[in-house]
Design brief:
Blueprint lengths: L2 H19 L4 H20 L2 H7 L6 H12 L5 H11 L6 H23 L2 H17 L1 H7 L6 H12 L5 H12 L5 H15 L3 E7 L5 H15 L3 E7 L7 E5 L2 E4 L2 H12 L1
Parallel strand pairs: 1-2
Antiparallel strand pairs: 1-3, 3-4
Helix pairs in contact: 1-5, 1-6, 2-5, 2-6, 2-10, 3-6, 4-5, 5-6, 6-11, 7-11, 9-10, 10-11
């Protein structure tokens, strides 16, 4: 995002929880607002003229807010309308970034609801595990990632896979992503997990090990990585027996290969 859009997003994000807390029932309001903001994005995707008009900084904020209220006010709840009007009243660099801002606000609302419900860690874990399921099932990934297929059909396919297996928050987040894929299904699910971790003030370390880590080992690793990177870490682990021993750690684009298999590869290279 450009600077103006980042500032707009920051401003609305800071007031988001206040909007959700109005009238009590934070969990329910957050869930409703998150999904309704996604619905608004769907409307804007189908109506470029409206999308551009709501983000047009050449028009006064009051005029843009009036347009949003008149055209969308009867389609969303009171809390969603408050967030939407707040967003419309800001200055966005482009209509595209305004749309992206609404998506991020919708996700944030859902994360706030999950946090209030006490299951944000579970949501983060479910998102990470789903990215692994997609990675290990290329055909499923191809089907839900095929942009030639109608978004509704892709969502229906994945909804059938997810039904009864994840929280309503995870399902809402993932179905929105699958309907409007940004990069690819696996990367987008990982990005959602990273956003959930960020809500908890943590970065993600993806750790592959030859055997399952004990809770004590996970905690010790999290503490060690926090000292290295200067930031609390959320550890996402998976077992890969081909590593033979040790582990491979990925933090962002950085890879630390301390596996036995990695050491053997480097030894073979050094020996020529």
């Amino acid at each position: 995002m450009h600077a103006a859009s980042r500032e707009a997003l920051t401003t609305v994000t800071e007031s988001l929880k206040g909007h959700l807390e109005q009238g009590g029932q934070l969990v329910a309001r957050a869930a409703q607002t998150g999904t309704e903001l996604f619905d608004v994005v769907e409307i804007l995707d189908d109506n470029r003229t409206l999308r551009v008009a709501l983000a047009n900084s050449a028009t006064s904020a009051e005029a843009r807010q009036g347009l949003a209220r008149n055209l969308l006010g009867d389609k969303v709840s009171e809390s969603t309308l408050a967030v939407l009007l707040d967003a419309v009243g800001q200055t966005w660099s482009t209509a595209r970034e305004f749309r992206q801002g609404l998506i991020l606000l919708g996700r944030r609302a859902l994360f706030i609801g999950a946090e209030a419900e006490g299951n944000l860690v579970q949501v983060e874990d479910e998102l990470f595990r789903l990215s692994r399921i997609l990675r290990d099932n290329p055909e499923l990934t191809r089907l839900v990632g095929d942009k030639k297929t109608e978004p509704a059909k892709r969502r229906e396919l994945l909804a059938n896979v997810l039904y009864g297996k994840v929280t309503h928050t995870t399902e809402a987040l993932v179905l929105q992503v699958i309907g409007r894929i940004e990069k690819d299904p696996i990367t987008d699910c990982r990005s959602l997990a990273e956003q959930a971790a960020e809500m908890r003030g943590k970065n993600i370390a993806r750790v592959e090990t030859a055997r399952e880590l004990s809770p004590e080992q996970r905690d010790a690793l999290a503490e060690k990585l926090a000292r290295i990177y200067g930031h609390e870490m959320s550890i996402h682990t998976e077992v890969d027996t081909s590593l033979l021993g040790g582990m491979v750690i990925r933090v962002g684009d950085e890879v630390i290969d301390g596996s036995t298999a990695g050491k053997l590869r480097r030894l073979r290279v050094n020996l020529g």
